[in-house]
Amino acid sequence: MKIKNAIFTVLMAFGSFMSYGQRPGRVTLAGFVSDAKSAERIVGVNVYVPKLNTGTITNNFGYYSLSLPRGKHTVVFSMVGFKSQQMELNLERDTLINVELLEEITELDEVLIVAEKKQAEKVQMSSIDLPMKSVKKIPMLFGETDLLRAIQYLPGVQSGNEGFTGIYVRGGSPDQNLILLDGVPVYNVSHLFGFFSVFNSDAIKSVQLYKGGFPARFAGRLSSVIDITMKEGNMRDFSGEGSIGLIASRLTIEGPIVTDKTSFILSGRRTYLDLLTQPLISLQSGGARAGYYFGDFNAKLNYILDARNRFYLSYYGGIDRFYFRDRLSSGFQTQTLEGGLQWGNNTGSLRWNHLFNNKMFVNTTLNYTRYRFLTSFEEKHSINTEQNFSAKFFSFIQDFSIKTDWEYSLNKNHYLRFGVISILHDFRPGAAEVKLNLVNIDSVIDFSKRIRAIENGLYVEDEITLNSRTKANIGLHYAQNFVNRAFYHSLQPRISGRLMLSDKTSLKASYVMMQQYIHLLSNTGIGLPTDLWVPATDRVRPQIAHQGAVGASYSLSSSYEFSAEAYYKHMSHLIEYKSGASFFSTTDWQELVYTGGRGWSYGLELFAEKKLGKTTGWIGYTLSWSWRQFAEFNNGLPYPFRFDRRHDVSVVLTHKFSERFDIGFTWVYGTGIATNIPQGQFATLPIEFWDFREPLYINPDMIKVVEHYGPRNSFRMPPYHRADLGLNFNKTLFRGIQRTWNVSFYNLYSRRNPFFIYIDYSNQGNPDRGVYKLVSLFPIIPSISYNLKF
């Protein structure tokens, strides 16, 4: 009751703001901005009033609200990729205007360029919007468009080597990233043991990355927020797109159920690696079956009840499956062996958008998300069924949550956001199910106790206009976590500010505190499905981070933007597996970890981007340091985090030669990751073999060779660098169908990038000395795919 009363008191306080209303002589202009072709709402549209040098941008649902003086105004609606629209309005009262923008095919006109120069600058720092059109032109492994790999090309995001799809942002680890799909957290974002991500780009509308300066509406992670919004579905025409590639195919279909009232979108992707390799496996094994595949399915329903109410129902399901099956015959007896690995996500979301009035917009959601890992083995006998045996090991995490977010345009100087969230976490870190007919065993064994936790949050943030050149976003997030006998809570301040030095140059600064109530246990850092999600408990404290950043940005024109940011982040209460511990253990996970670790990172990020014209792209550079410290590791001394990469460079370019041909090019470079490998060895003789009264005779069997590793993570792998090239051959077929042949070259100059390094002691010339040997995964890989859009 105390919590409910506190929430009610806060909401009543905001109610007093509502009753305050606008000052006399001012009105509110509000509405939604949509795509004229599909009626899909557009995120990030600039709504700008040149005369007043003021404006705003549309939110994730295409909504805008702007406080203006009564009278006549020129309002410009602009967005890269769309024709700008200029409206002459005479505002005498609060007005609701919905706007539709046409897609821009040729270069942007002068009206938009002028609007872009003077548009309202973002207060938010350390955030980047990633256009999906640019993502699709970036060449990728096997020609598969990969959203997370595109994000890894941005400064401040460490990419790792092949097999590392995990996002490492400003010295953080993968579990410290809040990855949202339509507002729902996705816990495992990797396919094929880390080589691909789970997001199908054909179903994605917009992506925004926050590396720091987090708004108060986001919470629960330390390092980043990746906010991904699915497409809503075409309200006016049936359309779609698909692709057939070397290892996977995908298809997306969208259209109206009731024109301008209800729409849908369905999108699916599946690999056929198992179908391609099955003939080879059967030929070599005499009929045994084995294979691996992954797949994704996205669905969304969009329903407009009336001008002020809209509902969304969205779903995502993804699966990775490795399987084997073999039959052995002996006389009349047939023995069948089968098993494998399986892991995947399921998420669902029901949203309600409601516009109370021109000043207040509300989004309420019910969310569900689950990640599950399963490994199984089964042995069946056709006659002696008492010998049948099966075993499964599984783990999962699932959440049920409800959240409501309110946006209120108080007046021209204050734009308020506030809301509440409640999450029920359900953790099952590890359990085994065993069946053995011989001794009549059929039971489930919990290696780690199932834990449920409740996490609540309440936030408020105010985007304040202090004067024409200074804005700030000041927020506060209050979080609670109830788990076992423990109760954790925290007040997390969030502050971001922007000072315009001129129409082209601004300075920014931010400070945030974040608290995280979940942990990820990993042996490798590669992002395998065996990594376990576990909660903060009465024995394991939640993670905490403080981050500060300062930066500057410069807009040479509407096409060119430059930015520089310096940051410092400190983390506490980190955890790590003890030496030799792993996910498959009969001991509770809390007995297998060290707690109380610290981490800190700092660095400089430079970013240059060209947004418009035939040539677009960006260049990013990161100079950074990242450290960890545990009392139990490295004699208690600080050591480099595995993804401490001093230098990280990325170049992403696309060029449109004509309507029929364009190319994409990327080049990345990164300092080698820090790791542990033997750096020497020496021989020892047990003391019981020593006898100083007689000459020492040494039997080789007495000698024990010991490897010396040196300080933790003191070995650096060779630098990672790679170039990729993609060629797109476009043609418009009958009835406006667009065809594209894509030819890609991954690792263009066939660089042998390190996956891991080992010591080979089979050197015949000197068998006592090992030789370091490097294992790499991919040489140059050409690929081709056929794409249709209709």
From TrEMBL:
TonB-dependent receptor-like beta-barrel domain mapped to chain residues: 291-748
Any one GO molecular-function label of the UniProt entry: siderophore uptake transmembrane transporter activity
InterPro entries xrefs: Beta-barrel_TonB, Beta-barrel_TonB_sf, CarboxyPept-like_regulatory, Plug_dom, Plug_dom_sf, TonB-dep_rcpt-like
Keyword Transmembrane attributed: yes
Bilayer topology term: Multi-pass membrane protein
Record-annotated TonB-dependent receptor plug domain positions: 143-218
Pfam families documented for this protein: CarbopepD_reg_2, Plug, TonB_dep_Rec_b-barrel
Localization per Swiss-Prot or TrEMBL: Cell outer membrane
GO cellular component terms given for this protein: cell outer membrane
Family: Belongs to the TonB-dependent receptor family.
Name by which UniProt lists this protein: TonB-dependent receptor-like protein
